[in-house]
Amino acid sequence: MFSKILIANRGEIARRIIATCRRMEIATVAIYSEADVHALYVREADEAVAIGGFTPRESYLLIEKVLQAAADTGAEAIHPGYGFLAENAVFAEAVEAAGLVFIGPTPAAIRLLGDKTAARALAEKANVPFAPGSTGAVGTLSEVREIAESIGYPVLLKAAAGGGGKGMREVYAAEDLEAALESAQGEASTAFGDDRVFIEKYILNPKHIEIQVLADKQGNVLYFPERECSIQRRHQKVVEESPSTAVTAATRQAMGEAAARLVTEAGYHNAGTIEFLLDAEGSFYFMEVNTRLQVEHPVTEMVSGVDLVEQQLLIAAGKALELKQDDVHAKGHAIECRICVEDVYNDFFPDAGTVSHLAEPVADYIRHDTALYEGFESSLHYDPMVAKMIVWGSDRSQAIERCLDALDNYTIGGLNTTIPFCRIAVASEPFNDGSYSTFYVQEHWRNQVPAEVQQLLSAVGAYARHRSTTGRKPQFPQRSRWADLGRIGR
Questions:
Q1: What angle do CA 147, 209, 283 make, to 5 degrees?
Q2: For residues 389 and 337, is the Cβ–Cβ distance under 8 A?
Q3: Phi/psi at 174 (nearest 5 deg)?
Q4: What's the pLDDT tens digit per position in 3-62?
Q5: What would be the CATH architecture of the domain defined by 4-103?
Q6: Which of 120, 292, 396, 402 is catalytic?
Q7: What tens digit of pLDDT does each residue of 143-169 get?
Q8: Active site residue 292
Q9: Closest to 49 measured CA to CA, from 62, 25, 66
Q10: CATH assignment of 336-490, given 3.30.470.20, 3.30.470.10, 1.10.150.120, 3.40.50.1110?
């Protein structure tokens, strides 16, 4: 096993990796930009190396600086976390060329599965179902028109080289196809330096279901109970849960086995996630592979009892998986709420500011993966997600009630966050009866501030001002005003 690793990331995921390394008695090296000088993970790591700059392009995305920090501190391996260089095959190659271990899949697997058209071709070879459309990239309008007419509208144009909703366009009618193709290609070129797009049938009101896998270097593969990640804005997840109400035991096994076939065909090892869409009839379609640890991995850990970061480290060190497929099953139910610094009443527009007060709910069934502390400064240079709250229950009903109570007692002063959105979403009828889809925001969220919310925001502002001038905590009712507001429609 490694004696020291460098974490090529920041914020809550860096703290998450440090926690497991500390338990495994592995020393950690943090890297930090000028914006992260006071970050919690910098204090918690055994060593910390300044790599300069305020923006990612001046710091965390500079491969030579990351490798130099590893060389200067004697790190044996690098954990990329997620985001930044995590799915960058060039970085993985550079890590190996420097004589270090990349805690993730091989560069070849990253490159293969990171290209969505190549991944679709691999899925076809592994007999993994995917939505009707082109296997490879499409180049001309006539080619796109022909495929769209054969599979029927609506269709989806997607960037071959990327994700996160960039280079993606929904097309409902033939007359909109040309403009959508030009727009998708242009955005894909800007975002990824690659204008290739492919076309597939647009699945209406689907569930976003994903399967966590672990694969060792000896050829063993495990798949875990599914995560449902259908509550999204801008094609990015906000609330996740495991298991899904929409997945039967038979479908769960079929999806898991399909995921295992795909990673086996790719020669994949370490942690990865295979994402599927599930339609109203229960058919599932391969979407993409995330060749890294997922943001929402804690919900899987909460229901399975398996530390996925520990497994990543063991696999990277050449150890074979000790767990067998029969050992992997869901116990209870888990819900994760992503805490992002955004104004949910203004199209989820990113916010910035300083945390003036922080009160996190505490219980043995609540887990916080967080970068927050009083005085934390949120920057528009980085991803707006600053924390995650994960709640476990013996069943889904208990998990929902515990999650609502926890959100009632979660206060972050000085910033607009997604807490109110999560509170209302988890309390909503579509979430409670399991009927919600990836269209939840479009169908159920009202992009306006109700009177009750205006009152609450005023109270929070008054609280922050009072605390900053007196240093004392004023008395508030024990139950949050979100309690009644969030239960509308339940």
A1: 55
A2: yes
A3: -60, -35
A4: 999 999 999 999 999 999 999 999 999 999 999 999 999 999 999 999 999 999 999 999
A5: 3-Layer(aba) Sandwich (3.40)
A6: 292
A7: 999 999 999 999 999 998 877 678 899
A8: yes
A9: 66
A10: 3.30.470.20
